[in-house]
Design brief:
The structure is a single chain. This protein is of the alpha+beta class and 759 residues long. The chain has 5 domains: 134 residues, Rossmann fold; 98 residues, PAS domain (Beta-Lactamase, 2-Layer Sandwich), CATH 3.30.450; 100 residues, Beta-Lactamase; 146 residues, Alpha-Beta Plaits; 166 residues, Orthogonal Bundle (Hypothetical protein af1432). It is 49% helix and 18% strand. It contains 26 helices and 20 strands. Strands 12-11-16-15-14-13 form a 6-stranded antiparallel sheet. A hairpin with a 6-residue loop joins strand 11 and strand 12. Helix 15 packs across helix 16, helix 18 packs antiparallel against helix 19 and helix 18 packs across helix 24. The chain is elongated and about 170 Å long.
């Protein structure tokens, strides 16, 4: 220890480990001294030079292993109580740990080193080291002082007894002169005065009859000049009760000396005459203030450690590694487990610890008997619930026995998050089916002869993009969930079902022939038909391939199944999309009856204008169809907006303006309606280029779109709407003329007014 600063010696033949230890120690103890050695001999040399407070010692080293170094240190009196922590691997064998304890190791630190554990271990070891040094030095000093004083007192007592005996004998025989007696008194009085002990004698009535100089320096009195002999203090009155049955008394007195508190340890004895009667008492006192203060400091340190133990939020347990019994616990343990401390101290660790990784409960005790260790386990609380915990355990010397000290942290939330991440890494978050990663892993794992014939089914939801564009992605997600539910309800429990793409599903069927696969697909299609009753747009195309021997790869069979699926999809998907448009229009008309009437009227007006413009029948039919479906994009608009009474606000109007593009996406995905999709996209463009969505102008706008624009506007003006009253035909004509050449094609407005309205 250098000026009360921590001195650490790390011995390890691995320079990288020494660099890590130095960094962690400097981080945790900024004002410490850290010395390193790459061999046992070098470590012993440095230890003899710097007298470290804590030694970190690796086991496997070339010239001397850690056990030999530890033995050498313990054989050196300078390092008998220096804390030694072995650096070990997490899964170090039990024999090495036991051997380390036998040669004098105090604790273990697992590699890779955890900085918080390193700091906690060194802090405890340092405090123990400081306490040991102080206790050792104090004991040496006090033993020396007590021995010295005892020897002086014994010698003085013996000499006094001899002298007193001689004096009595001489006095009895009257062969000694009073001069010689006075000389003897002065001689031995001087001896008593020179002793550092406080000595006094008092009569049975409590009157002091002798004090040495040391006593007088602590309690200033004068026996020679005082007319009245002083008495002992009131606190000493119990001394007057000493007798043959209780001839001695020992006690500690707190008093003041030189304006400082001091503690004097007194030993009193009764003096008897030849008949056994008490004639006086003498007392010898030793000032043990330093020893008392040191004892108080040690108790204070122990109380601080106990306070840290009791006040820490982490669960702390002290466990007997021999039988697994809990011998101490902090309040945090009672709060976490739900047991009182009394209940915990009557329990074994096996009653609350459930080891992970399929370990037996008996391994709980084993986990605490091999030194420093970190493990994760499941602990059962008093209410029967379970929590995942991290356990950091280390062996310590407790009242002369090796015990396991465990710090426990609740990591249930972390473990649940890890489990969720693990689940999501192999599952599709929307359908909870397996994902492509897991599916491909299982393809490789299951592709073995015992699983042949093995069939791989590929499925694709038809028209999912059309559903997303028409009804929103939430509705599309519902279709994917319906598909997943159908596959789960019809396939076997051991079949691997996965969503491997946006609208693609795959099924892996071990030990399944083509005939069995055909039956399974029939069951799936039957289930689909049941769902179609409530979800008429649901349609799934399937394809499959079966592997029967080892001359083909399963991934090639997957390509074969995909090709079959796409061939089926070419027909099924086209038919479904055409059907979907009609269903979408019906859905729109169900949302708003006004849209049904409006679409029919616009379609009729478009046909009248096209006829008046002498278009051929195909063109007339096309513009009538376009007029009928021109607002199909409104299927994605909230029903409240479509039927809102009063004018639309800005956000609602912006939502409405999206319907030409939405309509184009819906119709463009079908064969039957693809030719009118661009007409729908452009029916809100304006003649002067101020329309939307692409700001086309005059003849850039398709003719049919210009016709729809006039028909749509006229019907909107003359029809009664929830947010606007209708206007007379004449006023509507004036509006058409007013915006002719800006919003509308002038020639179409002219034909519509002259040949249709005024016909």
């Amino acid at each position: 220890m250098a000026d009360n600063k921590l001195v650490v010696l790390a011995i390890d033949d691995n320079q990288d480990n020494l660099i890590i230890v130095r960094a962690y120690v400097n981080e945790s103890f900024p004002h410490s001294f850290i010395y390193t050695a790459q061999s046992g001999k070098e470590g012993l040399l440095i230890a003899s030079q710097v007298n470290p407070d804590v030694i970190l010692l690796d086991i496997n080293m070339p010239d001397m292993d850690g056990f030999e170094v530890c033995t050498a240190l313990r054989n050196d009196p300078r390092f008998v109580d220096t804390p030694i922590m072995f650096l070990t691997a997490v899964k170090a064998d039990k024999e090495n740990r036991i051997k380390a304890l036998e040669v004098g190791g105090d604790a273990f630190l697992s590699k890779p080193i955890d900085v918080s554990e390193l700091k906690a271990q060194i802090t405890v070891m340092w405090k123990i080291r400081i306490s040991n040094i102080e206790k050792r030095n104090e004991n040496i000093r006090l033993n020396y002082l007590v021995n010295e004083k005892t020897e002086q007192l014994v010698n003085a007592h013996n000499e006094l007894m001899i002298t007193f005996k001689a004096l009595r004998e001489e006095n009895e025989r009257r062969k000694i002169s009073e001069t010689e007696l006075e000389i003897a008194k002065n001689k031995y009085g001087s001896i008593l005065n020179d002793l550092p002990a406080l000595i006094c004698e008092f009569k049975t009535d409590g009157t002091l009859i002798y004090t040495n100089d040391t006593y007088s320096s602590y309690f200033p009195i004068s026996l020679s000049t005082s007319s009245t002999k002083p008495s002992i203090k009131a606190s000493w009155k119990d001394s007057l009760n000493l007798n043959a049955d209780r001839p001695t008394r020992t006690f500690i007195e707190q008093t003041q000396y030189k304006n400082q508190d001091c503690w004097i340890e007194w030993r009193e004895r009764a003096i008897f005459d030849s008949k056994g009667n008490v004639v006086s008492f003498y007392a010898i006192g030793v000032d043990n203030t330093e020893r008392y203060i040191n004892r108080q400091n040690i108790e204070k340190l122990l109380n601080q450690l106990r306070s840290m133990f009791n006040g820490h939020n982490a669960v702390m347990l002290l466990i007997n590694p021999k039988n697994g019994m809990i011998i101490d616990s902090n309040p945090a343990a009672s709060k976490f487990y739900g047991y009182t401390q009394e209940e915990l101290l009557s329990m074994g660790i096996k009653e609350i610890c459930y080891m992970s990784n399929n370990a037996q409960n008996s391994d709980c005790v084993e986990a605490f008997s091999v030194g420093t260790k970190h493990t994760t386990a499941q602990h059962r609380l008093k209410d029967g619930s379970f929590r995942m915990v991290d356990i950091y355990s280390s062996q310590i010397n407790y009242s002369g026995e090796i015990m396991s000290y465990a710090i426990i942290f609740d990591v249930s939330d972390r473990e649940e998050a890890i489990e969720e991440i693990r689940y999501l890494s192999y599952h599709d978050h929307l359908t909870s089916l397996y994902n492509r990663r897991y599916f491909e892993t299982e393809m490789n794992r299951l592709d073995v002869p015992r699983n042949w014939p093995m069939t791989l089914i590929m499925g694709d939801v038809n028209g999912l993009k059309l559903i997303n564009d028409s009804f929103g992605h939430r509705e599309g997600d519902e279709f994917l969930k319906y598909t997943a539910d159908i596959l789960l309800s019809t396939c076997r429990e051991d079949d691997i079902i996965a969503r491997i793409g946006g609208d693609e599903f795959a099924i892996l069927l071990p030990k399944t022939s083509q005939e069995e696969t055909d039956k399974l697909l029939e069951r799936i299609k039957t289930q689909i038909q049941e769902v179609v009753k409530s979800k008429p747009l649901l349609s799934i195309s399937f394809g499959y391939a079966t592997k029967t021997e080892n001359n083909t790869l399963l991934k090639d069979k997957m390509v074969e199944a995909e090709n079959m699926m796409y061939n089926n999809k070419m027909y099924e998907s086209t038919s479904m999309r055409n059907k979907s448009v009609k269903l979408i229009m019906n859905a729109l008309f169900e949302k708003s009856a006004r849209e049904l009437n409006h679409s029919n009227r616009v379609s009729a007006i478009c046909g009248q204008i096209a006829t008046a413009m002498n278009l051929n029948q195909d063109e007339i039919n096309r513009v009538k169809l376009a007029g009928l479906v021109h607002d199909i994009g409104k299927i994605g608009v909230d029903e409240k907006i479509l039927n809102k009474p009063g004018k639309l606000d800005l956000d609602e109007w912006l939502e409405i303006k999206k319907h030409p593009e939405a309509g184009w996406r819906i119709l463009n995905s079908t064969d039957e309606f693809s030719e009118v999709s661009r007409l729908i996209l452009c029916h809100h463009e304006r003649w002067n280029g101020s329309g939307y969505p692409n700001q086309l102008k005059d003849v850039e706008i398709p003719l049919e779109s210009r016709i729809i624009s006039v028909a749509d506007a006229y019907d909107a003006m003359t029809d009664v709407r929830t947010y606007n009253r209708s206007i007379p035909k004449e006023q509507a004509i004036d509006e058409l003329k007013r915006y002719s050449g800006t919003q509308f094609d002038p020639s179409i407005v002219e034909i519509f007014i002259s040949k249709v309205l005024n016909k």
